[in-house]
Write a structure and sequence with these properties.
oxidoreductase; alpha/beta; binds nicotinamide-adenine-dinucleotide; single chain; D-isomer_2-hydroxyacid_DH; Rossmann fold; D-isomer_DH_NAD-bd
C-alpha cells in the first residue's frame, strides 16, 4: 500500500470457489455496491475437469480394490471377475449442469471413448455440439447414465435435487460423482441408496457440512469416496489464481479495467 497510500485494501473472500449462480455469491455481490468484485474462475476449470475424471476413477476403483488392499484380500485371483469394475469406454456419461466445468469435464472424458455423453442443463447448448454431447431431460439423464457427474450450480432450483426419487431412477450400477456443492445432494437419501443397492458407488468432493463430522455414516461406506473439496487444487492453478487476484487488485487500485471482473 506504499504505492497507493490513499487506499485501504480490503481483501474479502466471497465463498471460496463458488459459482456466480450460487445464491450466496449473488447476495455477496449485491452487498458490494461500492466495491468492484473480481473473480478467478477461469483458472480452475481444467483442474476441476481433470479432478472429476480422477474422482470417477477413484470411485470406480475404491469399491473394488482399496478395501481389499487394506484388509488383505489382494491376491485371490481364483475368480476371473475378482476386482473387476466398469470402464468409461462404451459407458454413457451423464453430466448434470453443462457450464464451464461440466463442458471441460466432458471434453476430457471424450478421449476415453464413452458410448455417449449426455447432459442436462436449462436447455440445449450450442457449444455441446463441438463434442457431440446430447441434451437430455433430467429423467433421461438419471435413467440412462452409467456414470453421473454433477456440475450444476447450487440454486433454489437445484438444492436437494439428488434425493431418494432421483436415486431410485438411476441404474443400480451407476457411479455418482459430485464436485459442485454438497447441498445439491440429499445425503441421507444418498446413504440409503448406497447401502440398499440402489446405486453402486459415489465420489464426493463436496459435502454438507465441510468437513463432514467424523461420525457421519457416509464415511463408513466402502463404496463412497470423499475428498476434502480439492477439485481445483494443483500448484499451477493456485499460483494462477493468486496472480490473477493480484492483477485484479492492482488494476482496480490504478482505476484501470480489471482483467477478471464479476459482471
Ligand atoms: N469442488 C471444487 O473444488 C469446485 C471448484 C470449482 C467449482 N465448483 C462448483 O462447481 C459448480 C459448477 O461450476 P461452473 O464454474 O461450471 O459453473 P457454471 O455457472 O459455469 O455452470 C453451472 C451450470 O449449471 C446450470 N444450471 C444452474 N441451475 C440449473 C437448473 N435449475 N437446471 C439446470 N441447469 C442449471 C447452468 O445453466 C450452468 O450451465 C458450481 O457449483 C461451483 O461452485 C466446485
Amino acid at each position: 500500500m506504499e504505492v497507493f497510500p490513499q487506499y485501504t485494501l480490503y481483501c474479502y473472500t466471497v465463498k471460496y470457489h463458488a459459482s456466480l449462480l450460487d445464491p450466496e455469491v449473488n447476495m455477496e455481490v449485491t452487498l458490494m455496491e461500492r466495491i468492484h468484485p473480481t473473480q478467478i474462475r477461469k483458472y480452475r476449470i481444467s483442474c476441476v475437469g481433470i479432478y472429476q475424471r480422477m474422482d470417477m476413477c477413484i470411485s470406480m476403483y475404491t469399491c473394488r480394490s482399496i478395501d481389499s488392499v487394506i484388509h488383505g484380500g489382494l491376491g485371490r485371483w481364483d475368480n476371473a471377475l475378482y476386482l473387476s469394475g466398469i470402464e468409461i469406454k462404451e459407458s454413457v456419461i451423464g453430466i448434470a449442469g453443462f457450464g464451464r466445468i461440466g463442458f471441460a469435464t466432458a471434453k476430457r472424458l471424450k478421449a476415453f471413448e464413452p458410448s455417449k455423453i449426455i447432459y442436462w442443463d436449462v436447455g440445449p447448448l450450442e457449444y455441446a455440439k463441438e463434442i457431440g454431447a446430447e441434451f437430455a431431460s433430467f429423467e433421461e439423464l438419471l435413467k440412462n447414465s452409467d456414470i453421473i457427474i454433477v456440475c450444476v450450480s447450487l440454486t433454489d432450483g437445484t438444492r436437494g435435487l439428488f434425493n431418494k426419487e432421483a436415486f431410485k431412477k438411476m441404474k443400480p450400477s451407476v457411479i455418482f460423482i459430485n464436485t459442485s456443492r454438497g447441498a445439491v445432494v440429499n445425503q441421507d437419501d444418498l446413504y440409503t441408496a448406497l447401502t440398499t443397492g440402489q446405486i453402486l458407488a459415489a465420489g464426493l468432493d463436496v459435502t454438507t457440512p465441510e468437513p463432514l463430522p467424523r461420525d457421519n455414516p457416509l464415511l463408513s461406506l466402502p463404496n463412497c469416496t470423499i475428498s476434502p473439496h480439492i477439485a481445483s487444487v494443483s500448484n499451477k492453478t493456485r499460483y494462477a489464481m493468486a496472480e490473477l487476484t493480484a492483477r485484479n487488485i492492482i488494476a482496480g487500485l490504478k482505476g484501470e479495467k480489471m482483467p477478471a471482473p464479476v459482471c
